[in-house]
Amino acid sequence: MVKLPVISGQLLIKKLEDYGFTKVGQKGSHVKLRGIFNGTKRTVIVPLHNEIAPGTLSSILRQAGLSAEEIFDKN
After folding, report:
1. Longest CA–CA separation in the chain, Å
2. Which of 29, 30, 61, 65 is the residue whose CA sits 20 to 30 A from 49?
3. Residue 9 C-alpha from the chain's centroid
4. Residue 2's pLDDT band (boundaries 50, 70, 90)?
């Protein structure tokens, strides 16, 4: 199991875009992304904070259908 890193909202958005998610809107400091992953339509909201809390990051990854290993071990 990979320990969740401390990352910014911008970096998380870039990593989600690598998996086919696209920005569909923004309200204030929160960006909405949508994508189809493993045959399921998924919507996630990412805060544009300098540091995303580990619990928030874990929740976003779960909603996206990704694991920490998939998204942070990808080169």
Report:
1. 33
2. 65
3. 8
4. low
